[in-house]
Amino acid sequence: MKEVSRQSLYKIRDIIQGQNYVNIRARLGQLLPKEYSRRFAQLNFGASNCVWFGEDDVEYYSYSAATSEEKELIAECLENSREFVCSNLEKPMPFVSKLFIVPSADQIFWYRDDRGDVDVLLTQWGFQEKAARQDVDIIDILISEPRTIKQSEVTLTFGYSDGSAAESVPFKLEIFNNCKECESDEDARYYVGRIHDGKTFTVSDESGAQTQNFTVAKGAEYNVVFNLLTSCRIKVVNRDGERKPGFRLKVDGSELAADENGVIEISDLLLTPDKMISVTLLTGNGLQQFVPVRDADANEFTYVLEEKKQEVLPPPPPPEPPVEKMVTIHLLDYDGEPLPEIPFTIMQKGGKSISGVTGSDGVGMIKAAEFEPGKKYVVKFTVTPEQREKINKAKKSTK
DSSP assignment, residue 284? Predict the structure, then answer.
């Protein structure tokens, strides 16, 4: 460590009575985060003087060497430090407010940290000049001076894309060129602190895949929304419950095909407030909607195809056999009466003969196919005495 300030104990007096300042500094290191305890210089008492030390690798500048803007930043740093230290050490150190008393502004040193921000080192803390007629609170005067650089309170509010709160969620906060891991509280909030207006910071999820940038402004809200993803399965069936492998549908406007099991699987489904999955035919008809939830195992849906049932008609009757054309032969006696049950023969000159028998009405029927077109035929028949006798008897019975 290197010496930053040295003073004769005859010129300054301690204002924290009955306390060992070396022990006080040791307790500050135990009770405070390092970013606050390091603002109080380590000290070592000699026989007649005291030396205050800073870090070897830090270049310290006196308050008087600061620009007006840097002096405002120094005052902000002191104000934030006093507020935090006093509120946290009020019980173990009732005298804590006196730690922010220094003999003069020359005992306020400042430097640029590894993020490029102004930080402060106090030497001769808890002392006043013996020659001073009354105690003067130098730091309070500096804090009370008007500032042109404005600060705003920054509190992050966390939620998910489905509109629910994100409580106790790990995240990364990148601010002042420094990235630290944080976690939202039970109210899905995280207090960052007072930040200069116009400063930017970045919040990302634990994996770093989702990133959101913010700029500090008076009255601004800082709502961090992390995407909540799930998946679902849509089974495609007809009205009989039969699966339809390869069937193509539109899911939220995208054309997708069912797999060999008749299922459409969707991964990385973004949940939003009142999210509904809309499924239609490729024509846009047949809309069916499903409501997904966080639990992917519960996102099993069934799309039923509203197919029109075809009317089942009875089978047509067998075709009627074609009507076979017939040639009618009428056999009559000399009286013009029909000759029933008389065999006859149709003779083709130089061709085949066709045989037949008349019915009770004296009519014989021969298939037309038996005749050759353009040929001449002669009909021959003979009435036997027995047949004549029978015919004559039939005539008498009808008279």
Answer: S
The predicted-structure confidence for 373-387, as pLDDT tens digits, reads as follows 888 888 888 888 888
Cα four-point dihedral sign 312, 248, 300, 291: negative
Q: Which two tokens stand for residue 344?
A: 């006859």
Distance between CA 260 and CA 8 in Å, rounded?
91
Q: Is 234 helix (H, G, I), strand (E, B) or coil?
A: strand
Strand, coil or helix: what is 77? Answer: helix
Name the burial class of residue 131, with classes exposed (0-12), middle (13-18) and buried (19+) by CB atoms within 10 angstroms of its CB.
exposed
Task: Say if residues 171 and 158 touch (Cβ distance below 8 Å).
Answer: yes
User: Does the reported pTM lie above 0.70?
Assistant: no
Label residues 142-181 b or e (16+ Cβ within 10 Å = b): bbeeebeeebbebebbbbbbbeeebeebebbbbbeeeeee
Which residues lie closer than 8 Å to 28 by C-beta, 6 or more apart? 37, 40, 89, 99
- Determine the Cα–Cα distance for residues 265 and 261; give it in Å rounded to an integer: 11
* Separation CA 371–CA 348 (nearest Å): 9
Confidence check: pLDDT of 73 > 80: yes
Tens digit of each residue's pLDDT (9 = 90 or more) over 256-268: 999 999 999 999 9
